[in-house]
Amino acid sequence: MKSRLSLLAAVALLSACSTEPPEQFGIVVDGSRIQVVDLHTHSGTWENTPPGFRKRLGGRVPRGFYWLMSPLTDLNLGPGNILSQMNSAGIYGAGVFATISPNTTGNATTEFVAKQIAGNEDRLYGFATIRLDRWNVDQAERLAKFEEELATIDSMHGIKLAHAHQQYRLDDERLWPIYELAGKYGKPIYFHTGTSPNPGTRYEPEYADAMYLESAIQAHPDTIFILGHTGYDTRIRALTYVNSAILMAQRYPNVYLEPGALGAERGEEVIDDFVTRLKDQNVLHKVIYGSDGVQFPGYLKSHLTNYVAAMQRNGYTKDEMRQVLAGNFVKVFGIEIPGIETAAEEGE
Amino acid sequence: MRILKKIGLGLLVIVVLFLVLDFFARPPAERYETVNLSGQVKMLVGPVPGGKISYRIYVLESLEDDPNLNHPLEEVVDFQSDGPQFSHTFEYPLHMGSGLAVSAWLDADGDGVFCTPTERTDPSGLAYTEETPAGDFTLDITLTKNCRQANWFYPPAP
């Protein structure tokens, strides 16, 4: 009953809310303003969501309201709502991921995301993706199209791959041509690591543990590997693969980490341990903040609030927070964020 | 009183409308077929080494009516056997698609993990049929390559 009421409340909130940009972006920590970029948000549509995931999302809907799932999902995952949630949280910019995972969470193609973010490219940064489910048959055709997209769609700043959703072992070298293209075009790749509670997602170590990516990382020194979720085992709410991800970031200059979903309610038992490991193991210069939003109304703000509170509780300095919340993003992607100098500007 | 009647009627119409819309928006009922799967795991050459064997059953081709969501190898269920003979009863989801695939890997080094980055000795394979299974169904699986997941084998390269 509680979840049904929550859903109806979410529906009402979503319909009612459209937040304008704040006078100043950023969050205030002990009197200082810190800018924020959220690397990790999703777009998509109900139409391109497979039955298993629809069942998970729609399973909480009271009788009589299921037909609202389609328009509300599309509204929730649309650029207007992403921007609205960013405005409400004080977040200046966000990555918006394309994903093609017909076994799990569904499809949002590169072209779709490019259209979604059109007109807001100053704040929404696209991540392209590529379909993999018939790779033995169509990889040449897929790679050619993908390369054209990387070369011609300016709003695509990176690449999103989710091996566990796309049913690929992290050590599958058939995907190395994608990593080569990423290096060639200077587009960092965001890799989903760790697990997921979504139906159909693979959760065995070979799909979740970043150690399985090590040979690919070594073989592609010009490609930036961002280890999404830093190996967080969200299915069982544990830090099972986090140390592996940290080890990769320590060993290789081209590896970065992202803490998506650690600030969500599911992560509240482990977030202090998580942020402490990152600080104690000296990888804060490799951490790029992301949330895995937008999920539901207010998610971007609540994730950010929880993550910042965890950093404060565990002794992060303001400079360390600046690095994590936007500084490392600007360093890696070279995108201008008001109030933050890019590497090029720093060198001038 | 008349106003109250009108409000009541209006609410009734809205409720009925919502229920009708709900009925047409919900996915069709799920349909299942019980399958008693059995078979044997083989090596390309020689006998099957000792060790636990892990299997995963798939619908071969899913959501064939939808060009965007149609995909191979929709997972149904996992099971294990202690030797090369296997049998397993499961519910095949007819509403998801057609055909059957079964992948298998042998834990040759006994570490419980399907190959690590450095231990690459667990053989794997996949058998498939375009026939949708029902009742008693037999499928033998040959382990041909180490450390490969199902989509390494299907769909096969032209």
List keywords for this structure.
heterodimer; A: 348 residues; alpha/beta; TIM Barrel; seven-stranded parallel β-sheet; two-stranded antiparallel ribbon; 13% strand; disordered N terminus; B: 158 residues; alpha+beta; Immunoglobulin-like; five-stranded antiparallel β-sheet; four-stranded mixed β-sheet; 15% helix; 43% strand
Give the helices and strands, then pairings.
The complex is a heterodimer of chains A (348) and B (158).
Chain A: H1 2-16, E1 27-29, E2 32-34, E3 37-42, H2 51-58, H3 69-76, H4 79-89, E4 93-97, E5 99-101, E6 106-108, H5 110-117, E7 124-128, H6 135-152, E8 156-161, H7 163-166, H8 176-185, E9 189-192, H9 205-208, H10 214-219, E10 225-228, H11 242-251, E11 255-257, H12 271-280, H13 299-313, H14 318-333, H15 343-347
Parallel strand pairs in A: 3-4, 4-7, 7-8, 8-9, 9-10, 10-11
Antiparallel strand pairs in A: 1-2, 5-6
Helix pairs in contact in A: 4-13, 6-8, 12-13
Chain B: H1 2-25, E1 32-43, E2 53-62, E3 71-81, E4 85-93, E5 97-106, E6 123-129, E7 135-138, E8 141-143, E9 145-146
Parallel strand pairs in B: 1-7, 1-8
Antiparallel strand pairs in B: 1-4, 2-3, 2-5, 5-6, 6-9
Radius of gyration of chain A: 19 Å
Protein structure class of chain A: alpha/beta
**Assigned CATH class of chain A:** Alpha Beta
Cα separation of the termini of chain B: 75 Å
Plain-language structure description:
The complex is a heterodimer of chains A (348) and B (158). In chain A, 55% of the residues are buried. Chain A has a 7-stranded parallel beta sheet with strand order 3-4-7-8-9-10-11, with helices on both faces. In chain A, strands 1-2 form a two-stranded antiparallel ribbon. In chain A, β10, α11 (242-251) and β11 (255-257) form a beta-alpha-beta unit. Chain A is 43% helix and 13% strand. Chain A contains 15 helices and 11 strands. Chain A has helices spanning 2-16, 51-58, 69-76, 79-89, 110-117, 135-152, 163-166, 176-185, 205-208, 214-219, 242-251, 271-280, 299-313, 318-333, 343-347, and strands at 27-29, 32-34, 37-42, 93-97, 99-101, 106-108, 124-128, 156-161, 189-192, 225-228, 255-257. With 158 residues, chain B is of the alpha+beta class. Chain B has a single domain, classed as Immunoglobulin-like (Sandwich), CATH 2.60.40. Chain B is elongated. The termini of chain B are far apart. Classes of the chains: A alpha/beta (348), B alpha+beta (158). The A-B interface holds A 48, 50-51, 54-55, 58, 63-67, 69-70, 102-103, 106-107, 132-137, 167-169, 171-172, 174, 200, 204-206, 211-212, 214-215 and B 15, 18-19, 21-22, 24-27, 62-63, 68-75, 95-96, 113-117, 147, 149-152, 154-158.
